[in-house]
Specification:
The chain is mainly alpha-helical. Among the domains are: 37 residues; 35 residues. It contains five helices and no strands. It starts with a helix and ends with a helix. This is Actin-associated protein FAM107A. It holds the Pfam family DUF1151. It is found in: Cell junction, Focal adhesion; Cell membrane; Cell projection; Cytoplasm, Cytoskeleton, Stress fiber.
């Protein structure tokens, strides 16, 4: 009869026919005794805990910063870039400058040449300086002599061939 009743109530849901009727929850309160702290009795013998003071919030600088933030919030309706205190802007600028300086030093350290590379470059430059002028000087001195000898040899060879 219950299945028929469910089917009549929910004809489009066939799973409703296979459900069992809902059960009533078991009375839990009869098995568990009420807690002791709910009685409302206060023991005067117990030491009551005190709230600990946060050292950051108690510091003078934190209180000043908090006061300044509250005042700037009330004036401008929020904390923006323009409402930063001068000290904070100066500190941020210093920090930026230090970062830039540090990056430059790191770049220079990367670009620095090791002592071995420096010595090799010096020797290479010295060899180039010695080799190039010596080659040109030698070429300029020897070539005209070679050309002159070559002309003489041709003339002598040509004269000796004609005479025979």
């Amino acid at each position: 009869p219950l299945v028929q009743c469910l089917w009549v109530a929910f004809p489009h849901r066939p799973e409703a026919a296979h459900r069992s009727p809902p059960r009533s929850p078991a009375p839990v309160s009869s098995h568990v005794p009420p807690p002791d702290y709910m009685e409302g009795e206060e023991d005067d013998d117990l030491i009551k805990p005190k709230k600990l003071v946060n050292p950051v919030k108690a510091s003078k600088s934190h209180q000043d910063l908090h006061r300044e933030l509250l005042m700037s919030y009330k004036r401008g309706g929020g904390v923006g870039v323009e409402t930063k205190p001068e000290l904070q802007r100066v500190l941020e600028a210093r920090k930026r400058e230090q970062l830039i300086k540090q990056r430059k030093q790191e770049d220079e350290a990367r670009k620095k040449i090791s002592p071995l590379e420096q010595e090799l470059l010096k020797r290479h430059k010295k060899l180039e300086e010695v080799a190039q002028p010596a080659y040109f000087v030698t070429y300029e001195k020897i070539m005209p002599r070679l050309l002159q000898r070559h002309k003489i040899a041709r003339l002598e060879f040509g004269a000796s061939n004609m005479g025979h």
